[in-house]
From TrEMBL:
InterPro entries tied to this protein: AAA+_ATPase (IPR003593), Chromosome_initiator_DnaA (IPR001957), Chromosome_initiator_DnaA-like (IPR020591), Chromosome_initiator_DnaA_CS (IPR018312), DnaA_C (IPR013159), DnaA_dom (IPR013317), DnaA_N_dom (IPR024633), DnaA_N_sf (IPR038454)
Gene3D superfamilies: 1.10.1750.10, 1.10.8.60, 3.30.300.180, P-loop containing nucleotide triphosphate hydrolases
Function text: Plays an essential role in the initiation and regulation of chromosomal replication. ATP-DnaA binds to the origin of replication (oriC) to initiate formation of the DNA replication initiation complex once per cell cycle. Binds the DnaA box (a 9 base pair repeat at the origin) and separates the double-stranded (ds)DNA. Forms a right-handed helical filament on oriC DNA; dsDNA binds to the exterior of the filament while single-stranded (ss)DNA is stabiized in the filament's interior.
Organism (species): Roseivirga spongicola
Top-level taxonomy: Bacteria, Pseudomonadati, Bacteroidota, Cytophagia, Cytophagales
Binding residues for ATP: 179, 181-183
One Pfam family here: Bac_DnaA
Keyword Cytoplasm: yes
Domain free text: Domain I is involved in oligomerization and binding regulators, domain II is flexibile and of varying length in different bacteria, domain III forms the AAA+ region, while domain IV binds dsDNA.
Protein name, UniProt field: Chromosomal replication initiator protein DnaA
Subunit structure: Oligomerizes as a right-handed, spiral filament on DNA at oriC.
């Protein structure tokens, strides 16, 4: 009797059914369709790349065994993978069995009962088996101020929180520099999911913590328990994935957990301090996963958003700060939100200690101490002082309205250096030069660059000043 692909595959399924749990059988084998049988090669269609990799990782031995039972020792299996777009554009991956990949007894999927699951978060007050979310209720969407800097990330976050695992934002990847609100946002998502759906097991974990837990699990021979814990999660939030760079084994483990959860319609949310394309030391297959969902970035909030953040913070702390101080802080601190909050806290602390009101004078004083750290060594003050000395002009004149030619040039040079050597925005630079407009700063920067090209002596002067900046920085 000539065998058909259907009869061969049906027989394989009978065999497989006896070897794996019900759940696994339904998840991983029922969706497979036999496509063709060509001599000793059976081609099966799998719904996604995930599927293909999962089968290869977990069931390679089983598949090999049943194919060889059916087709003899030369029996081969090929996969036809439906490409992710959902269109029926098939792309065949030829995989010849026996396969090189060796997998030790992998019992991940023996999901029914009897699993050892121990909470890997060692919290003294925690029951060993309890589900621990690691969420901080202080992070919410309510107190996450919206601005151009975060609009996409924030609204994607809300969408995900309302329908975890269901939107196409899966995984949701948030990236942005230090202190720009990644942790706040991903935690806010977690909190919202928890509130809305009580049965949804949300887990927030930093990549660092995940790595430690994984290493401990290896040491203690408890990988299975570690994995089982993570596989129960419905909404997994992994903060700062850049920390996985270069940690191959941890990435491997995360990859499996990721695949498993994603395949089962669970939501994954990640953050990173840089764009996925700049994540060095991360395996390509992991990176390609990140691109499946949505990647959204966080930028430094603009001036108005910073004002709103300060005011919101004051409101929640029940503190009053005069408008001019709010404005001054928002102008002066344009590195990141964490620093902005730090300055605010210092200011409040100073006022409390000295039993004074918060006013512009105190704000300036407080900022002086802190800004020094913020700006490393080269700050606006230093640049103004250095340029003033170089051109023999007072700092006051640099900030003043004077339109005398020498002063205008020195002022432009100072602005240019501020642009080069500090993190201040154009707006903030303008502010430090007597409240000038940001377009004045753009003009200054442009004029200085032009002049350096045409006037050699001027170019040398700038180089000399730059040397001073660099010397100060080391
Ligand atoms: P990251 O994880 O990116 O380093 P965080 O989430 O820890 O940054 O944010 C630093 C601080 O700034 C936190 O206290 C956070 O609440 C606050 N913050 C950041 N962005 C906003 C925002 N848009 N609105 C209100 N607070 C913010
Ligand atoms: Mg963070």
């Amino acid at each position: 009797m000539v065998k058909s692909e259907t009869s061969v595959w049906d027989d394989c399924l009978d065999f497989i059914r006896g070897q794996v749990g019900d759940q696994s059988f339904r998840t991983w084998f029922e969706p497979i369709r036999p496509l063709s049988l060509n001599q000793e090669t059976l081609t099966i269609q799998v719904p996604s790349q995930f599927f293909y990799e999962y089968l290869e990782e977990h069931y390679v031995h089983l598949l090999r065994q049943c194919i060889q039972n059916q087709l003899g020792p030369g029996g081969k299996l090929e996969y036809s993978v439906i490409v992710d777009s959902g269109s029926m554009q098939n792309q065949a991956y030829s995989v010849t069995l026996p396969n090189q990949r060796q997998h030790k007894n992998n019992s991940w999927d023996n999901a029914n009962g009897k699993q050892e699951v121990v909470n890997p978060f060692e919290m003294p007050s925690l029951d060993k088996n309890s589900r621990y979310s690691n969420l901080n209720p202080n992070y919410s969407f309510d107190n996450y101020i919206e601005g151009d800097c975060n609009r996409l990330a924030r609204s994607a976050g809300i969408a995900v929180a309302e329908k975890p695992g269901i939107t196409s934002f899966n995984p949701l990847m948030i990236y942005g520099g230090v202190g720009l609100g990644k942790t706040h946002l991903v935690q806010a998502i977690g909190n919202k999911v928890s509130e809305a759906t009580s049965g949804n097991f949300v887990l927030y974990v930093s990549s660092e913590k995940f790595t430690t837990q994984f290493t401990d699990a290896i040491k203690n021979n408890s990988i299975q328990s570690f994995t089982n814990y993570y596989l129960q999660v419905d909404t997994l939030i992994i903060d700062d994935v850049q920390f996985f760079s270069g940690k191959e084994k941890t990435q491997e483990m995360f990859f499996h957990i990721f695949n498993h959860l994603h395949q089962n319609g669970k939501q994954i949310i990640m953050s990173s301090d840089r764009a996925p394309r700049d994540l060095k030391g991360l395996q390509d297959r992991l990176l390609s996963r990140f691109k499946w969902g949505l990647t959204a970035d966080l930028q430094m909030p603009d001036f108005e958003t910073r004002m709103a953040i300060i005011m919101r913070k004051m409101q929640s702390d029940g503190i009053y700060i005069p408008d001019d101080v709010v404005e001054y802080l928002a102008y002066s601190v344009d590195t990141n939100v964490r620093e902005l909050e730090g300055v605010l806290i210092s200011l409040i602390a100073h006022a409390t200690l000295n039993k004074t009101d918060i006013n512009l004078e105190l704000a300036k004083q407080t900022l002086k101490n802190i800004v020094h750290d913020i700006e490393s060594e080269v700050g606006v003050d230093y640049i103004q002082k250095t340029v003033g000395e170089y051109f023999q002009i007072s700092v006051e004149d640099l900030k003043d309205k004077t339109r005398k030619k020498e002063i205008v040039i020195a002022r432009q040079v100072a602005m240019y250096l501020c642009k080069e050597y500090t993190n201040h925005s154009l707006k903030s630079i303008g502010y430090h030069f007597g409240g000038r407009d940001h377009s004045t700063v753009i003009h200054a920067v442009q004029s200085v660059s032009d002049m350096m090209d045409i006037d050699q002596k001027f170019g040398q002067a700038i180089e000399e000043l730059k040397k001073k900046m660099k010397m100060k920085m080391v």
